[in-house]
Write a structure and sequence with these properties.
The complex is a heterodimer of chains A (113) and B (116).
Chain A (H helix, E strand, L loop, with lengths): L3 E4 L2 E4 L5 E7 L5 E8 L3 E10 L2 E4 L6 E3 L9 E3 L8 E8 L8 E2 L3 E5 L1
Chain B lengths: L2 E4 L3 E5 L4 E3 L1 E4 L4 E8 L5 E7 L5 E3 L5 E5 L4 E6 L8 E9 L9 E2 L3 E6 L1
Parallel strand pairs in B: 2-12
Antiparallel strand pairs in B: 1-4, 3-9, 5-6, 5-10, 7-8, 8-9, 10-11, 10-12
Classes of the chains: A mainly beta (113), B mainly beta (116).
Chain lengths: 113, 116
Amino acid sequence: NAGVTQTPKFRILKIGQSMTLQCAQDMNHNYMYWYRQDPGMGLKLIYYSVGAGITDKGEVPNGYNVSRSTTEDFPLRLELAAPSQTSVYFCASSYDGGVYGYTFGSGTRLTVV
Amino acid sequence: AQSVTQLDSQVPVFEEAPVELRCNYSSSVSVYLFWYVQYPNQGLQLLLKYLSGSTLVKGINGFEAEFNKSQTSFHLRKPSVHISDTAEYFCAVTAFSGGGADGLTFGKGTHLIIQP
């Protein structure tokens, strides 16, 4: 089925470790987004991309990096994991910038211990 | 910049009763407004949106919302809820001028709890 695929679904990291959260979409969407969701806090935008080779910071970019070498893929990199990065991470994509709605992935639940 | 306030973190309702989930926004520019629903252990899916035109918008699963510019509100309603409506509901906004390209601003969410 067409959509946004996130891997892994769950991960436990130790403080200081690094990892990459993968996000891929097969709908030829130009716009892609990374959000984190913390209990009772809603979703906060980490990074976004309006097309291959173009990325920009969102509201909470510190401690994260992204790249967009292809239209399909938008990986999120955590370089030095900290307990404050324990969260559920959602990737989303849209055709038109989100005005007609995002397609969300099913999320990655990350715990940093 | 925009902000969204969802006034209730939890709303318990009996099955088949009506429900209203409240959302207020703040913005210095014209905005687009959205409601998303998140079922347990899933991503978010679009429930409905207001872009322009009629201030009463209808969405999926029998939900509707009314845009009130003077009160800067976009409350979500359903006349009769079902157990399957148990979920987290998020109100979101983006600036009209940006077309949403730089992302949505979400509220903190309202947990709708349907009691049998």
